[in-house]
Amino acid sequence: MKNILITGSTGFIGQYVLDLFIKNKYKVYCTYVKKNNKRSDKITWIKTKKLLSDKFKSIKFDTLLDLAWYDLNDFNSKTHIKIQVSEHLNLYKSLIKVNPKISIYAVGSCLEYGREGQLKESYKSNPVTNYAIAKDSLRKKTQMLKKNSFFKFTWMRIFYIYGQNESRRTIYSQFVDSVNKNKKTFEMSKGTQKKDYLPVEKVAEFIFKLTVKNSDFGIVNLCSGKGVKLVDLIYSWKKKFKSKINIKIGVLKMNNHQSMNFFGCNIKLKKILKGFYG
Fold it and tell me: CATH number of the domain that 208 lies in?
């Protein structure tokens, strides 16, 4: 792998992934929209408001790691379906045209499954939100391109992640903020929903390890392989921060539209990382 293009490298997951590439001395090209503060002789920054293919014509990339996506605070925004799918697909087409054997790694979502219980990569997708529908659509259209092409394609489905630098709207950020401000209580719902949670550092590690293998893995769940109740997760955070904050359970209402119990199957991921897959 000589030249890798990373989109979304300044985002929540992207900044952790980029750190791993720099640490391991890879030469990377990164897109960005707003001003970035990360400096390294291993990074070439490419400023672009959209994923414009003409920005990348002068470089033959061996690998694309596509982490970019916006309007993540509104899963039913119309931009997911009407704008973003075509933006990403056009980028893929342009890079494939320059390098027919390019490896494309992109991130999907566990929400593409649209069902509860243990979720395996072989299950048929049934997305509900515009975000999940758009991700699933991009995956299917990219797979259609493979019928007449030679590029490699891996679709990494992310489950629930948390960590530093996350959006302030997330429960992890709210909890950490409450602890840092020495608040006496932290209010939450019953927290009985059981989901597959991972720290962002672990997800970034998975993405890095899969990408550098430079192979054609298809759909891969990036998950822990087990469901954890939200209330138990929050108590683990309390223990981690050695906080005395009082967690008040059942104060906030549960989201009635939220799936209550689902988690990923990580058998395929484990096989790939151990070198026993493909």
Answer: 3.40.50.720
C-alpha–C-alpha distance, residues 180 and 243, integer Å: 9
Say if residues 17 and 65 touch (Cβ distance below 8 Å).
yes
Element (DSSP H or E) covering residue 8? none
Q: Containing H/E element for 90?
A: helix 85-98
Residues forming beta bridges with residue 197, ordered by sequence position: 160
Structural domain span for residue 117: 4-161+196-226+262-274
Helix axes 130-145, 85-98, angle to 10 degrees: 20
Q: How many domains does the chain have?
A: 2
pLDDT in tens, 253-278: 877 656 779 999 999 999 999 976 65
| d(C-alpha 126, C-alpha 228), whole Å | 23
* This prediction's pTM: 0.93
Alpha-carbon dihedral sign for residues 143, 145, 149, 153: negative
